[in-house]
Amino acid sequence: MLLQSSPLASEEPPPFELKGSLFTLTVLYLFKLDRVAIERHLTEKIKQAPGFFNNTPVVIDLEGLHESRDGVDFIALYELLKGCGMVPVGIRNGNPKLQAVARLAGLPLLPESRSTSPARKPEQRIAEPVSTRGLIVSHPVRSGQQIYAPNGDLIILGTVSAGAEIMADGHVHVYGLLRGRAQAGMKGDLEARIFCQGLEAELISIAGRYRVSEQIGSDDWGKAAQIHLADDRLIIDHLAR
Amino acid sequence: MATVIVVTSGKGGVGKTTTSASFATGLAQRGYRTAVIDFDVGLRNLDLIMGCERRVVYDFINVINNEANLNQALIRDKRVENLYILPASQTRDKEALTKEGVEKILNELKQSFDYIVCDSPAGIERGALMSLYFADEALVVTNPEVSSVRDSDRILGILASRSRRAEQGDEPVKEHLVLARYAPERADRGDMLGVDDVLEILGISLLGVIPESPTVLQSSNAGVPVILEEGSDAGAAYSDLVDRFLGKNLPHRFLVTQKKGFLKRLFGGN
């Protein structure tokens, strides 16, 4: 998105140009306007990870705020967050009255996020999955089926048909023909590999580097093979049967 | 206990309804009380193939909505004893098929029938899903052509994951392959997939190969299930298919090119 105006021939090149860009911002979901509580929780968070909020830009989400009738003292909130190392750059959601107050305090209204999932309550935490054991599938994987093994290997004891998709964060093993799409190292593991008894895949991919069927040589076609990355390139090695 | 058999394929125009009609007729001919249900709500065809389109009063959806009872909607076949047809509604759409409604009708049919044949619509939407959900066995109809084979593969995946047997963790739906519109000479020339190619891709047991035959078109236009056309290749193939389904061990016919005999070649017979 380039909004550069075309300079006239006699003019100097323009001193700036405008471009659209995407940023990942921290969002502070406000549930309660209790200055003391906010301050206490923030101090605690900083104690856990000093330097975490070091001039971090934050967006304040007002959707979960129910005491909206009293209004929000954005100036005070701004100072409070600033004192903890955050830099409020805008607000999101909230009723029109709140939004007007925010505008007066110099905080622009940002568009609502597309995801409609409600904000996670502060006490909830996503359980860290710990299982690294593989997922074993003992039936053939048919066209249109999709199987993903998060945090581990995927082992298929049959044929993977054209139009099927198998994915794993770790290795992918197919003890049959691989005719569908196989992706290993879904979360970027460059060491992940794909093994199959017969390579007739529509697509093979490791950590995002892929080859489509057309790019698989006829020497490799139908062979028992392993696929791995070397110097960021997909390498197909034959396996002895 | 009655057996529910779905005739399905994914792709349209491969011979599901033709197969449903002949298969159900064949079961009834052999003395089993058989009902065949048209699940293609909105695109009703089975009644035409069965030649009973002028006797449709009530339909499947009427029964689901309690606007008629099952006996009012079932049409008794005039040619074959023990055979009944439950036509689809032409004026409604597939959304009218509810899981509860379909289950209720199947349970009622199970009281008095040996086999219930469900003729699935094409596609993988509601009508197709409802027709296979309660199935015990499935006839997967495929043509020797790559897109048809891939769609059948898709349907096999759905049978293995979204049928009631799969959801409840019961024994899986028993899958049978019906290879229709097969022309051995074209398979020999490499114009179409061979039987072995299809079996290799789908990996299920072959119940029958139905040869490509002009009789199929003629008989469906005449409203006669092709199995009743004795003497035709396709009719004989369906007959074998039914016997095999019922446990007879018959060799597959119509797999190889018919060689013209010496005299035929000499006198140009066909």
TrEMBL record, chain A:
Q: Which InterPro entries match?
A: CAP/MinC_C, MinC, MinC_C_sf, MinC_N, Septum_form_inhib_MinC_C
Q: Which domain of life is it from?
A: Bacteria
Arranged from A to Z, the UniProt key words for this protein are: Cell cycle, Cell division, Septation
Septum formation inhibitor MinC C-terminal domain: residues covered: 136-236
Q: Which Pfam families match?
A: MinC_C, MinC_N
Q: Residue ranges of the Septum formation inhibitor MinC N-terminal domain?
A: 16-88
Cell cycle is among the record's keywords: yes
Coiled-coil ranges per the record?
A: none
Q: How does it assemble?
A: Interacts with MinD and FtsZ.
User: Matching PANTHER family, A to Z?
Assistant: SEPTUM SITE-DETERMINING PROTEIN MINC (PTHR34108)
The UniProt function text for this chain reads:
Cell division inhibitor that blocks the formation of polar Z ring septums. Rapidly oscillates between the poles of the cell to destabilize FtsZ filaments that have formed before they mature into polar Z rings. Prevents FtsZ polymerization.
**What family is this protein classified in?**
Belongs to the MinC family.
**Protein name, entry field:** Probable septum site-determining protein MinC
From the broadest rank down, the organism's phylogenetic lineage runs: Bacteria, Pseudomonadati, Pseudomonadota, Gammaproteobacteria, Candidatus Competibacteraceae
TrEMBL record, chain B:
**Where does the AAA domain lie?**
3-150
The answer, when asked if ATP-binding is one of the entry's keywords, is yes
What domain of life?
Answer: Bacteria
* Record Pfam families: AAA_31
Matches recorded under SUPFAM superfamilies:
P-loop containing nucleoside triphosphate hydrolases
Which InterPro entries does the record associate with it? Answer: AAA_dom, MinD, MinD_FleN, P-loop_NTPase, ParA/MinD_ATPase
Q: Which UniProt keywords apply?
A: ATP-binding, Cell cycle, Cell division, Nucleotide-binding, Septation
Concerning its family, UniProt says: Belongs to the ParA family. MinD subfamily.
Q: What does the subunit section of this Swiss-Prot or TrEMBL entry state? A: Interacts with MinC and FtsZ.
Looking up NCBIfam families in the UniProt record yields: minD_bact (TIGR01968)
Functionally, this protein is described as follows: ATPase required for the correct placement of the division site. Cell division inhibitors MinC and MinD act in concert to form an inhibitor capable of blocking formation of the polar Z ring septums. Rapidly oscillates between the poles of the cell to destabilize FtsZ filaments that have formed before they mature into polar Z rings.
UniProt protein name: Septum site-determining protein MinD
Point out the gene that encodes the protein.
minD
